Amino acid sequence: MLQVESITKEYAGPAGALRILNGVSLNLERGEAVSIMGPSGSGKSTLLSILGALEPPTSGSVKLNGQDPYSFGEVELAAFRNRQVGFVFQDHCLLPQCTVLENVLLPALVATEKAPFDTEAKQLLDAVGLAHRIDHLPGQLSGGEKQRVAIARALIRKPELLLCDEPTGNLDRANAEAVADLLLELQRKQNTILVLVTHSEKLGDRVAQRYELNGGRLEKR
Ligand SMILES: Nc1ncnc2c1ncn2[C@@H]1O[C@H](COP(=O)(O)OP(=O)(O)O)[C@@H](O)[C@H]1O
Ligand SMILES: [Mg+2]
Question: What domain range includes position 202?
Fold first, then answer.
């Protein structure tokens, strides 16, 4: 489970500290999903970075299954991110020189387990409808296809926590819907906690718990 307690985040600005998050708390059990909307600059991406162990909060705490990643040393922290957290960004962030299959396998490169990642990557690519594209390079794919690869990559380690930052923001309506369908279906199948940041009310409304980030606080929508 994910336990977020009274998080604040401040950045240094020219006129002193700028408070972006002002007491954000959130508790999510395995398999639960929330959507977060909010104006540009309201701190949505900042919050996801804090949840994903990429950026420490100024105060407050984040725990995943009782573990506080910010109490870890560098090696443990990297392992935590790799093993427990999957990210999908608005921009797919695929490596252009690697094939579709290689991109999905990237997070597994550092795995110490001997899981059959190759088979799992192919199954995931099949699940996102790209079984016939595994040897393509990202440059040979459409925007929707690239985002589907990014989803498969985010899920290859079966993370406890899936963080999505405007995952359909760059897609046309039909592709956005197809990508959202896949994302939610796989999240349910893997029983992953999902925190979904979106500008799309339609997408935000597809998950049970809906929030808006306003003035540094999470409000129920
Ligand atoms: N590394 C940083 N240093 C200083 N200010 C930052 C940094 N990252 C984000 N901000 C500021 O924090 C605010 C929230 O940013 P962000 O989380 O990206 O918002 P959103 O994703 O909701 O559009 C913005 O005003 C942004 O300029
Ligand atoms: Mg953002």
Answer: 2-220
